[in-house]
Amino acid sequence: MAQHFSLDQSQYRTRWARFRKQKLAVISLFMFIIIFVLSLGAPLIANDKPLLVSYQNSLYSPIIHNYPETTFGGVFETSADYQDPAVQAMINKHGYIISAPLPYGEYSLVLDADTPHPSAPSMSHPLGTDDVGRDVLARILYALRVSLLFGIGLSVIGSMIGVFVGAVMGYFGGVADLLGQRLLEIWIGLPQLFVLIILASIFVPSTQVLFLLLLSFGWLTLVPMTRVHFMKMRREGYVTAAQNLGIHPVRIMLRHILPSTILLVLSQLPFVMVMNISALTTLDFLGLGLPVGTASLGELLAQGKNHLDAPHLVLSGFVVLAVVLSLLIFIGEGLRNAFDIKH
Prior knowledge:
By secondary structure, the chain is mainly α. The chain has helices at residues 9-20, 23-40, 42-45, 85-94, 136-172, 174-189, 192-202, 207-218, 223-233, 237-244, 249-285, 297-306, 311-338, and strands at residues 52-55, 58-60, 95-98. It contains 13 helices and three strands, in the order H-H-H-E-E-H-E-H-H-H-H-H-H-H-H-H. Strands 2-1-3 form a three-stranded antiparallel sheet. Helix 5 runs antiparallel to helix 11, helix 11 packs parallel to helix 12 (297-306) and helix 11 (249-285) runs antiparallel to helix 13. A hairpin with a 2-residue loop joins strand 1 (52-55) and strand 2 (58-60). The model has no long low-confidence stretch (mean pLDDT 88).
């Protein structure tokens, strides 16, 4: 059997060692992981509900379940208001409360502010409040979680579709490649932002609809690169030998060409994430993105545009967005240098 292109563990370790030599990329990856983990833990860091309540030797988790006030000795059957001093006194009389470090959630309103909203940063609110009266730091934590999960999910699924289309076009060539290229030229030629704005204004806004709308263009990025790579690799001797032996094309593509393609995809994935997060932020900024009230960086930037007398709004959103996108770009450059299949 002819040789085939495959990457064993030692080759992956070699490329990972090459990545680790790039200090800026490693530091960026480390910082990005910290930001991502913190954003995933947003409900544990910023929440107006206690993380844990001990009452009469029983433990309760209000961030997971809603408990009526009667559970803690109250008279109302409605959900307990843990910010109510009376409820706190009832619980503390027979137990204790463990609260999140920041006692404000994604939708919590600051009702005890000394100044009108949006209020400037203070000891109680390190990044101030927005025009509705919500804590900006809490909103940013939840917005980061949405943006990063959205960007990662969209990038992974879009890349899988793009690699599949590019692989079919590049490997089989001929009519498949010709038709694929013409369709791609038409699709890429469309003004994406305007099309997205039109579609977003037609459909009822929701996270699922927005995901599908962005995915309709998000798979295009890797198609040309994958197509060229498969077109080049199909002429390699070991691929030709496998074809002459009658091995099924799908097996040849998966076993002999796809491993090297994965390296290309990994090196480009951070850049694809940058594009997707930017697109989501743009639509949110225009008011055509996530449902109203959902924490998002674009919505925060839009508030800053509408309240130039409250610069903490636009500065908070801009700095967070710039840091996240810069980290992804540095990581992408490091991966591109380390995973270059020419080395």
